[in-house]
User: Fold this.
Amino acid sequence: TPGWTTEGQGFRDELEHFNNKDISIIGMSADSVQKQKNFCDKQNFSYPILADETKETLKAYGAWGVKKMYGREYEGIIRCSFLINVEGIVEKVYDKVKTKSHAKDILSDIGYISSYFYQETDLGSYLRRILKRIQFHECRLLLKSFHLVQILHSH
Assistant:
């Protein structure tokens, strides 16, 4: 979809910033492997986009379900993204995604939290505060628009 294309381009354009923070971008959709390859080649995406044709993973992350548009109900990809740490624990869910600014919005969250961490001098104080805010250092971003890593809408 045009929304996914815009969103994916944002991650492509900001990929170096994510890499500098040790964050991997991974996309996912219900499209075939060949469709994903063609799409990535056309858009010059250098991060992986996974194909979940069975929708098992998409469903497990709540990224596939009933949607409504113009009064019509249908099943499809639910646009969202997940920040998953190196142990596989979901640290944050982005369920309200602005396609044009999503990548920069996440970088803003990460930058704020990372700089907050470095300003803290008392570890106990930091740990108490981190329970209220999520530290994104050394996490992997899985987008679910396939935003599970991005869970993509069919294109």
Confidence is low (pLDDT under 50) at residues 115-124, 126-155. Residues 2-20 form the longest helix (19 residues).
